[in-house]
Amino acid sequence: MTSSIKYVGMDVHTESISLAVRNPAGKIVMECVIETKANTILQFFDGLRGDVRVTFEEGTWAAWLHDLLKPHVTKLVVCDPRRNALLLDGNQNDRVDARKLSDLLYMNKLSAVYHGDHGLRTLKELVRSYLTVTQDLGRVMTRVKAIYRSWAIPCSGTQVYTARHRAEWLGKIHEPGVRQRAEFYYQQLDALRLLRQTVRRELLAESKKQKAWKRLCQIPSIGPIRAAVLLGILQTPHRFRTKRQLWTYSGLGIEVHSSADHEARQVQLSSSAPLTLWMRDFVTTSNNPSHTRASRSSP
After folding, report:
1. What is the spatial distance between Cα 13 and Cα 61, in angstroms, rounded to a whole number?
2. pTM confidence score
3. I need a surface site. Which of 39, 63, 129, 247 has the fewest CB within 10 A?
4. Are residues 172 and 77 in the same domain?
């Protein structure tokens, strides 16, 4: 059976995909460039016999390609491009990158990105929408205050965002063009607040279908929204081989520092952990009083 194994590296782009195929000995046996179309991709892999193992980097096309190829190959690895140091060495082009990916797959030196489906695809997309809208709302609020500060108008607090005092605040800006720009930002702010409430309702309705959501809500300091976000990002704890990997992903892993035979252990929230990166902006904007009021006002 080992003689039929094929290691396929794919360098994916919008218009084309560069592929490199290695045999069990690690030698390149095929190279080609195909269109980034479902029929063309499936036709290529239907022509490969035996045990086909495929890899490509996480990116815009990763989720679509994963669902497309999963039923047609023996093993599929969506790798983390940040950990593929080999791709940064030497010349770089589509053909070379495909060769390097197939080589890393052959040597089993790829770090996989989780792409499992446990019936949480809808919840995951709603979480992404909610986090994106929340971040956009925070950016617009920052732009509104930046306008007033650029004209030496004090604007501390959250009164500057309220519709009741909006005319009063706009009256402090005497330049017509600047006032008009502020009005546009206010319109964008109102639209994003309304959209955020809509996404929030859909997110809560979808998260309540999951049994794990009720258990997460029982944890102190984790409310309905944060439980939904955690569930949408983690999806399932069984994706991790050990609890330590789950703690590391969450930013709560134990860090060991040793120097001159002295060892120190501490639990520290890592700012570079994947889950921490997802939650950082969400927690920051959720602590904003104006965001809290907008959330409470929605059913």
Report:
1. 8
2. 0.73
3. 39
4. no
